[in-house]
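Sequence in, structure out. First:
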Amino acid sequence: MTAVAADGGWRRLSARMLLIHPIQEIPRALPALIGVLVAGGGSGQRGLWAALAVAIPVGLGTVRWFTTKYRITPDRVEVERGLFNRRLLAVSRDRLRTVDVSAHVLHRALGLTRVTIGTGRSDREGGGSVRLDGLTADEARDLREELLHRGAGAAAAPGDAGAAAAPGDAAPGTVPSPTGEAATAAPETELARLDPTWIRFAPFTLSGLVAVGAVAGFLANATNEANLHPSDFGPLRAIVDWLEGAPLAAAIVVVAVVAIAVVAIASTVGYVLAFWDFRLTRNPRGTLHVTRGLLTTRATTIEERRLHGIEISEPLLLRAVRGARCLAIATGLRVGRGAERGGSLLLPAAPRAEAERVGASIVGEPAPLDCPLIEHGTRARGRRFTRAVGVWAMLAAAVGLPAAFTSWPVWPALVVLALLPVALALAVDRYRSLGHAVSGERLVARSGSLVRRRLALGAEGIIGWNVERTFFQRRAGLVTLVATTAAGHQHYDVQDVELGEALAVAERLVPGLLEPFVEEDRATDPRAVAAHSPPDAAGARRAAPPAEGR
């Protein structure tokens, strides 16, 4: 791994990026290019203006390459860039969490990759990652090994074949032993590989809905700016005429069927492009490695010591066909962009049994994924019905009152009336999805209907508790227990549980953390006794019944 040895010397990105940077600079230079083309259109020197339009992105890309350099020291990763506004980004190697290697079509054509080094900060905090756009595939692989596996060798026993490779001249597939002799590295364990039959789940993910919406918006804006009317074209004119003359119900059915078909096709194509050749492997030196992609490839490496749990996600349509996803709850992974765009995805849409198997292999036991959950009682169920019916009633009033006292059509009110059974069914499903448990040293919680999520969060990743009570929760004698963590979305909820049960769960997972806050109320609030009562024969704490009316 001599390419990335921690010698502290400054390095540049591959010179092949001089072919890619100008293309990447085109969007940034677009206003200038438009101005150049407009200015050149009214003169007789179009060739000169065209050359200037080409020189602008080429010059910006060349400056970007010459002013960017990086180095890897034993303590830090440093990246310096900029010409007039010089910036130096330095990150301690102790803060590095993940290494994400991706390559789009241009990168792959030139044998290059983009390396994003996660530092544990959320995307919602404005970044915090280190990006090196323009390393060769070998440099990216060696950099990943150097940054994530450098500490494994020190902790390994002498002669351990799984020890991390130190910078040196070891051949690929070998690691140097403490005696200086090359030893064969332990092979990676494959946890999951894409089965082509999983593509049947793609239409139920609705991931193509965003793409279809974006394309439709772009086309609508482009035709409007160009003063074009799609209905002027022959086939589209015929379709519009048919829709205008057809009964309303028939037109709605046809449009809905076409929209569903388009979204399903787009979702399937997106699934194939994103997850073709998907593999999830475990390195014996303590990392998980995810590779995927058809045109744009992506490889994400996660340190298992940064992984504090997993989440099984079941969107409503995917759940209807017994499908699910498996996500990682880990520090350093990108959040807030969706599971498929972020780095937390451990398994794409697949059979639910497969998602649970992968999750069990990662956490080391199946219990958190198949243990029975504690129901939250009739008051939690009542809150689900109250919310569903309350939202439906407000919608009915907003639509029905104008129809009753004005000349507005009546059919919207009839549509809202037909939604009442849907609202009631949603409330039932939301309550059936609600539950929690403590499995060993893990918090297990499940909630949601449109997207049902079951999480298994390790106690070692919980850094605090929040006990939240809204006005209506106080009236029902319920609370929401929030586990605060540095991983994933940084907070995970156990919704609508009794206060005594919430304190019992918190005390069992992180003993003593809430004790200073409930000690004073022990004599006056019987629910606070739950956190201090002795364990019963099964090892669980007995929760005192909640006081009514608080």
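Second:
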Amino acid sequence: MNQTNSVIPGNTPLHPEQAAWLNNVLPTLAPEQLLWLEGFISGLRAGQARPAATAAVPPSASPELTVLYGSESGNSESLADLTVKAAQSSGFRAKAVNMADSQVSRLKDIQNLLVIASTWGEGDPPETAAGFYADLMGDGAPRLDGTRFAVLGLGDTSYEHFCKVGKDFDSRLAALGAQRVLDRIDCDVDYDDDFARWHEAALKALSDLAAPAAEVATATAPAAETAPAAIQYSRKNPFPAALKERVLLNGKGSAKETLHLEFDLSGSGLNYQVGDALAVIPHNAGDVVEDFLQSTQLDPDSPVSIKEEAFTLRTALTSQLDITTLSLPVIKRYNEIAKDAKLEALLDPANKRDLQEYLYGREIIDLFHRFPAREITADALVGILRKLPPRLYSIASSPKAHPDEVHLTVGVVRYDAHGRERKGVCSTYLADRIAAGEQAEVFVTPNKQFKLPADNDTPIIMVGPGTGIAPFRAFIEERQAIGAAGRNWLFFGDQHYLTDFLYQSEWQSYLADGILTRLDVAFSRDQRQKIYVQDRMRENSAALYAWLQEGASFYVCGDASRMATDVDVALHDIVAQQGGLSKEAAADYVKQLKTDKRYLRDVY
């Protein structure tokens, strides 16, 4: 190739900057890469290729990158996809890999590895990543001396074991000989800025270590003009959705307050699939904010700054900051101001049990009352608090049945604890603080794992007590809309038949139409001995096992702490009993269901 006379289509000479770039790059290229580049420019002359904002690269010149993720609610998966797109723009041949679909033995063949791992519950890995996590921590994990890596942990500082899984991955990869190229970053629920900082630094660190030929990938050519992009509504830019309807689902006399809510998505461009979640950004209740201000004796009009954005203190406490969740980090930051000896003693690691007892059922306002600070400024108060996180709700509608709408099933939280009335921030926001026609800020959180079977003939078994019914209402609407032939079996439970049978008329209509094949209900308080959904499963164990043997997918949605565990135990027992299997063989059977993505959970 004659680099001094190279031209682009139309016999236009190269721009001086392009020629300088070629002069710098050409000496670094292998012969086959020179041939490829010459062919590419010849193609441009012939009109067979078009220049892009980023120069194309022969595959051999682009370093490979694997973005490995473990996700429970879909956040890690979404961030993995964003990282892959950024990596591809930086010249990597990048791909996202779910831990559920990978094996630890494959890590030894990966040179560039980024890990995004969520921590679930009390320091546990996401369910879909549990097997991979156990294998990595086990003695059979391979040496990784040729691997370069960085880890991003996702967690919630209101839990004791904040980002434990990310920390475990980070230390274990290093112990196996992998080279850490960037210190781990641990993210709270407001993770956007930390994620951006992490993936930019991680990609730069890996790029600097990649082969010189990879520099071809990042060289830029003049960018063509593009039309302005349509508005993209997301976590950083939520959509203001108008509330169309709010219906109380419980009957008179119920101890519960469960709402059906319908939001208008017209004009948003937001798309969702059944199984996804809708995130709602709430506002704190006015009386809670007022109590906060009175307790601190601060001027509500004091100017404060949050991530370089200006607010009054009242506005910040209402719409920007979490003013309820009491956690260890909040207590530590607060005591840097309060300097209370009793609080300092409570923070002593030797008094861990006492601290956990104090945290249970209390909120930040209790901290102010029990350990008052002599003096606190508005800026110092803001520095103590974290950003108000969105709340995720399983979507209760099919977009095919309700175009331009999204429905939610929300249990409203109100209770008394330690002599004070408490209220769920988002559930009471949706119940009390927005009226029909008013808007709430929302965005869709995809859940690629919790989906209907690809084969519409596959039977499904759904276990969803209480508000866990939400995604299964969406599932049945979807299957009806597409004419799916697969059988559908629902287990539903709540307290009382007369007051708590959520969506009763809909389920009975589906039964009558044959869309719902079976319905088994458990109302725990209608008889002396409490009956739950797992009890109904056991009563129908032969049929349930037969459905599984015929290829049915098994779904669970609802409370993770008790219900989902009890259902899992019942499932293992049913498989062992009906299949004539040992405890170990039954565990293998259930594990295979998970591997085959036939046992899926959406728990919280």
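Remark: Residues 1-12, 43-57, 212-227 have pLDDT under 50 and may be disordered.
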